[in-house]
């Protein structure tokens, strides 16, 4: 799914198995506490700050409604 804002074309991936789901969000949440508690807060390394806030609200809202597990990892 599109999760743009951190970088152009940034994606999140939903994995499902045996009725359970896991969302891989990469850099959509820059910090494991404040990006989730305050999705509108900006980080200097996000390329499109308004768009990343919109993507966070959309993805986090979807995950909350689905009671899914989320995994945030930064791969360098």
If you had to describe this structure to a student in words, what would you say it looks like?
- The chain is an alpha+beta fold.
- The chain has one domain.
- It is built from 2 helices and 3 strands; from the N terminus they run E-E-H-H-E.
- Strands 1-2-3 form a 3-stranded mixed β-sheet, with no helix packed on it.
- A hairpin with a 2-residue loop joins strand 1 and strand 2.
- The chain is globular.
Instruction: Compute the CA-based radius of gyration.
Output: 12 Å
Instruction: Assign an overall shape.
Output: globular
Q: N-to-C SSE series?
A: EEHHE
**Biggest β-sheet: count, sense, barrel?**
3 strands, mixed
Strand content: 15-25%
Distance between the termini: 21 Å
Q: Share of helix among residues? A: 25-40%
Domain unit count: 1
Low-confidence stretches: none
Overall average residue pLDDT: 84
Structural class: alpha+beta
Structure annotation, total helices? 2
